[in-house]
Write a sequence for this structure.
């Protein structure tokens, strides 16, 4: 895998003009044609619920993820933003402990480990293959319940390899052999691929031994991306029930979560909606936001006649 440290022909970061490097990080403007967030939001809003009240009971939200018992399938995803007022990861970890949940993050320092909450660490698909595998080993040493990569960060909009937020770390496009090597390095620790949006990638992940996939376009990182929830049913049908599938992107409330769960997801990740609560209320803001989502999820499950996560069924969903 050593050769992957070298970018392909014409891909060297030092040869990319400034405007090309900048283009690699652009997102389609909000509400502009091709904005993947807008497309995804519209799709969520086109889905409605059937009501099945007779015989329904108060639902349970309990589930199990990577061997950990959770109070809800709604989990905080990686937020990855600096705040001058608070430490986002610590705020999220505190709320996660109170909620009996699990957090996903790309920043697992000693202070976060000391919080004692279940953590899934996600790293970028950096071009240094040896360092990438070393990060998996470090994640295992920290006690993370799973480790993964948001491999969707391979390319910028201009087709060059992405260089990360600060423009100094080059990325790569992982091959099937890369994925297998990552799974092998993770060993007994579940390995997660975040950014799957097709049956083809999902099946390759399953063949490589990946434990879980996250259907995501990473907040509209590229234009005209298919909504994760739209491809969810066909991906679930393709990989079967024995592979964990999570969904993120534009999940704002418990009703969005219910739509994804009913259509085949095992859990959902919520990240961007937590930014304002973190900045304004810290840990309590995260706790209150996710508590409201859980209440909404429980409420709509009751009206749909679904008693727990094991009895989720897609036939309660209708598209307008």
């Amino acid at each position: 895998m050593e050769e992957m440290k070298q970018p392909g022909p014409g891909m060297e970061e030092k040869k990319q003009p400034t405007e090309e490097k900048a283009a690699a990080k652009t997102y389609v403007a909000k509400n502009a044609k091709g904005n993947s967030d807008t497309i995804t939001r519209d799709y969520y809003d086109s889905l409605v619920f059937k009501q099945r009240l007779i015989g329904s009971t108060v639902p349970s939200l309990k589930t199990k993820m990577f061997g950990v018992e959770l109070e809800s399938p709604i989990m905080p995803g990686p937020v990855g933003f600096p705040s001058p007022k608070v430490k986002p990861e610590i705020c999220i970890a505190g709320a996660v402990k109170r909620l009996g949940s699990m957090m996903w993050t790309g920043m697992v320092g000693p202070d976060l480990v000391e919080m004692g909450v279940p953590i899934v660490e996600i790293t970028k698909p950096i071009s240094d293959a040896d360092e990438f595998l070393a990060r998996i080993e470090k994640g295992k040493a920290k006690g993370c319940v799973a480790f993964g990569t948001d491999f969707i960060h391979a390319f910028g909009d201009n087709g060059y390899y992405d260089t990360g937020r600060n423009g100094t770390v080059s990325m790569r496009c992982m091959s099937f052999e890369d994925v297998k090597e990552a799974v092998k390095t993770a060993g007994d620790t579940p390995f997660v691929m975040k950014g799957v949006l097709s049956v083809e990638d999902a099946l390759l992940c399953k063949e490589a031994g990946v434990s879980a996939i996250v259907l995501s376009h990473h907040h509209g990182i590229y234009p005209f991306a298919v909504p994760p929830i739209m491809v969810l049913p066909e991906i679930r049908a393709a990989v079967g029930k024995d592979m964990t599938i999570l969904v993120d992107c534009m999940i704002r409330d418990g009703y969005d979560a219910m739509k994804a769960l009913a259509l085949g997801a095992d859990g959902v990740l919520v990240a961007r909606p937590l930014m304002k609560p973190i900045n304004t209320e810290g840990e309590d803001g995260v706790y209150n936001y996710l508590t409201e989502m859980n209440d909404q999820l429980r409420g709509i499950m009751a009206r749909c006649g679904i008693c727990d996560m094991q009895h989720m069924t897609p036939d309660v969903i209708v598209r307008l």
User: Anything to note?
Assistant: The longest strand covers residues 191-196.
